[in-house]
Amino acid sequence: MKKSNITLAVAATLLFSCAAQAYEKGDILLRVGLTTVAPDESSSNIALAGADLGFGLSVDNNTQVGLNLAYFLTNNLNVELLAATPFTHDIQVNDNPLGLTKLGEATHLPPTLTLNYFFNNSGAAFQPYIGAGLNYTLFFDEEFTDTNEGIGFSDLDLDASFGYSIQAGFDYAVDTHWLINASVRYIDISTDASFTLNNSDLGANNAPGAVTVDIDPYVYTLSVAYKF
After folding, report:
1. Which residues does 29 contact at the CB level (< 8 Å), separation at least 6?
2. Half-sphere exposure of residue 143, counting CA atoms within 13 Å on the CB side?
3. I need a labelling partner for 173 at 20 to 30 A (CA). Which of 5, 158, 221, 227 fits?
4. Signal peptide: which range, if any (predicted)?
5. b vs e for 83-102, b when ≥16 Cβ sit within 10 Å of the residue's Cβ?
6. Residue 37: which residues within 8 A CB-CB, separation 6 or more?
């Protein structure tokens, strides 16, 4: 076979394989991988019985199994639901005169619904996209450490949060069904936390406490996807 014919055959094969990778209306993507929630938090100072203690809180990172289901409304638009196994974060106390470090921990679920636009639907393996959507974060299993409960801290409660989300990412097609995905999101998460302190040595009997924390995490996901 002449070189020119071989070249044409290879080009035709690549064109066919790439065309098979293009998204179409009605396609469904199921992604499974690892998702890391990395808070970029800021906090008000903790108020105890109306008094400003002069220090706030911070929240650490956590990684869990991320689940993602997307449905293509058109060849370039899909709607995507982000879910995951529950994230558990340590709640740390910033520099303070009480000598506290880890105050407690809280678990949350941050389901996020996003509308994504895919730039390149020509059939290329590399499919970049951007998106925006809404997030609802539900906190549960909030608790102080045993040490802090012994001091008299109790009744830790974090309000649920409703906010926006933006993201950028890409799919890379390995074949007509399997893909690799990577994405980064910014999610607007803010919560009001409340608690009670009972410690006669500190002069705090049933003293109510409160603090507002803007968690505002960056959420990183690396996953494997299957296109139905």
Report:
1. 68, 69, 70, 71, 72, 78, 80, 171, 179, 225, 226, 227, 228
2. 7
3. 5
4. 1-22
5. ebeebebbbbbeeeeeebee
6. 61, 62, 63, 64, 87, 89, 110, 217, 219
Out of 3.40.50.720, 1.10.10.10, 3.40.50.1100, 2.40.160.20, select the CATH number for domain 3-227. Answer: 2.40.160.20
DSSP letter string over 47-102? EETTEE-S--EEE--EEEEEEEEEEESSSSEEEEEEEESPEEEEEEEPS-TT---E
- What is the Rg, in whole angstroms, of the alpha carbon atoms belonging to the chain? 24
Domain residue ranges in the chain: 3-227
Amino acid at 3: K
Question: Cα 114 to the chain's mean position, in Å?
Answer: 12
Residue 51 burial (CB count, 10 A): 12
Q: Would you state the structure tokens that stand for residue 177, as one six-digit string?
A: 């069904």
